[in-house]
Amino acid sequence: MIKIFEKRKIWYGISLAIMLIGLGFAIAFKGLNFGIDFKGGTILTFNMGEQVNQDKVQEVEKVISDFTKKYSARETNNTEIELIIQTGAIETEQVKELKTKVKEEFNLGDDYLVQEENISGSIGSELTRKAFIASILSCIAIAIYIAVRFEFEFGVAAIVALIHDLLITLSVYAILRIRINSPFIAAVMTILGYSMNDTIVIFDRIRENKKKLGKVETGELINSSISQTMRRSIYTSLSTLLTIMMMVILVPGIRELTVPLIIGIITGTYSSIFIASPIWATLRDKKDKKNPKAQYGKKKKTSEA
What are the protein's UniProt keywords (predicted)? Predict the structure, then answer.
């Protein structure tokens, strides 16, 4: 049997270390790497009229660098390159000059401009606010569901695990300086649901084993329940990860959605196994100490007459 509960301080320490490193990177770089969806800016998509590779992207970047340094360029499909320019990095007239120079430099046709979109900073602020509200409401709804289906301590442990998943994901983004755009919000909502599903499976097994095993130590109850469900959790996560990784390799245009999903699924599986249940046990033990008559999962000693 795997000793999950007894080594809980190690699991907590690993998570805390990643969060602190992420915080350090965020402070060093003055915040997370928010993309155009949050900060605002201009998106230009050019049809290059031929197969696009990294060398072609670099050639386009040389042209762009004459106008601004605050940009990003990437290949979106076989023949197109997407350019993202931050708000305030370039004037409107310069955008027109940039488009003209790209067209002339690469001898592009009249249909060279596939997309031109401007996003204001106010829209980005609104998106940030709504994303935060959506995350909070999701956590509250999940806590209520868990508390009703199981008990209050399970609900609190589940919410702590979800906050853990979100903070770890943001920490990885801060460390790797991955850009955060609107697809990240969709990924976060998916991550919360996936992680919660995995956590509920373990919580349900804890409840079942409580009835089967009777009065056992809380640590033994958790270790037994996690050992019985760990293979299922790992296999489910691996099968999902393999599918998403294939999408990352074969469909580069949706990496802003698939990359956070990969990070979140790994984090969610970790928190379901190593974070949620130990936190529930800690909360339950504290409650039992305050109310000894309502022991739950604790072995009682009997005296002989």
Answer: Cell membrane, Membrane, Protein transport, Translocation, Transmembrane, Transmembrane helix, Transport
